[in-house]
Amino acid sequence: MKTNQTGFSLVEMMVAMTISLVLVLGVATIMISSKRSYNVQQDMARMQENARFAIEFLNKDLRMTGNFGCSGEVPNGITRLSGTEGAGGGADTISVNFADSNQNAFSVVHTPLIASAAVVSAPLNEGNTTFNFNVRGNLNTGDTVIASDCGGSDAYTITDITDTTVALVRGGQCKSLSTSTNGLCKTYNNNGLSDGGEIRRLVTYTYSILAATSGVGFSLFRNADELVEGVENMQIRYGVNNGTNNGANMLVQYQTANNITNWNNILSVRIYLVVNTIKQRFDKELDTQTYDVGELQPYNPDDDYRRRTVFTTTVMLRN
To answer: Angle at CA 155, nearest 5°, toward 154 and 156?
Structure first.
């Protein structure tokens, strides 16, 4: 028995194609929207991670600022903290100084009681200028070192170094009452107490905002090392005690670097970081916002298609 077989009519095919196109368009729209959302989440996550990383570095080094031994005394000729203010609302810079306790380039710790902890064999006696050591580490001629015990600290300069010896010269006026014509100002042994004396290399870190090595935008640098991409501005305020003492009448006011007269009297540091997303997303709105960074005038970046957030941290210093 024969049956008539017919195909789809032109109208039926057009209806089917239209329905298919609508479905494909819906799927494509969902995929594009999902991709945009994914890009935004990735950009924001990376920006927040960069900010966390930058703040972690700054907090760590700022908390170490002024660590010159158990006396808490700042050696003559050394400033524990300094900074400069960026011109015209530009990024500020900040420099911190402390005795490096993480790298035993040249250190004597607990010398009276724990001889095994020392890498320098000669005791820290007044007048000594040359020491023998067995671990050189990151130490070079011209470096500054801090000798200290719980009675005080002084700065010295490395004048000569070999594979086994290091020679020092006084780097500034001695703070101790007993002074010598050269070499160590006094005997650093904490009067035989358990903490003893120590010599450690002075570390100076300068944080600044410079052009990124990638050629796109700006980054946070520590000395010559690029730490974090996407940090385009840094504003710093320094907490100064304008009260009568450090007790109930203490009044901390935050000032710019240009208004600081004594950098060793800074109690705290407040930092504003403007961090952006690395890539421009042209499917998003143009960023025309201004941002509060503690200035009288808000920060107004170039209009582009990046997202920005201001991150703030306040760090109490050793004082």
So the answer is: 125
Please give the pLDDT value at position 31: 80
List pLDDT tens digits, range 42-56: 888 999 999 999 999
How far apart are the C-alpha atoms of 231 and 55, rounded to whole Å?
11
Q: How many CB atoms are located within 10 Å of the residue 180 CB?
A: 16
Instruction: Tell me what pLDDT residue 108 has.
Output: 52
- CB neighbourhood size of 78 (10 A): 21
Q: What share of the chain is helix, strand, coil (3-state, %, to 5)?
A: 20, 30, 45
- How far does Cα 226 stand from its chain's mean position? 11
Give the largest Cα separation in the chain, rounded.
126
Task: Round to whole Å and give the CA distance between 114 and 172.
Answer: 29
Residue range 209-218: mean pLDDT, rounded: 93
Coil vs helix vs strand at 215: coil
User: How far is residue 152's CA from residue 69's CA, in Å, rounded to a whole number?
Assistant: 8
Instruction: Tell me how far CA of residue 87 lies from CA of 65, 181, 190, 256, 271, in angstroms.
Output: 25, 44, 46, 12, 17
From CA 73, how far away is CA 88, in angstroms rounded?
Answer: 36
**Domain residue spans in the chain?**
41-64+212-316, 99-203
Q: Look up tokens 């239209």; give the residue.
A: 18
- Whether the CB-CB separation of 200 and 124 falls below 8 Å is answered with no
* Fold for the domain defined by 99-203: Elongation Factor Tu (Ef-tu); domain 3 (2.40.30)
Whether the Cβ atoms of residue 132 and residue 83 lie closer than 8 Å to each other: no
- Phi, psi dihedral angles at 152 (to 5 degrees): 155, 180
Confidence of residue 179 (pLDDT cuts 50, 70, 90): low
- 12 dihedral zone (left: phi>0; alpha: psi -120 to 50; beta): alpha
Element housing 232 (H / E): strand 231-241
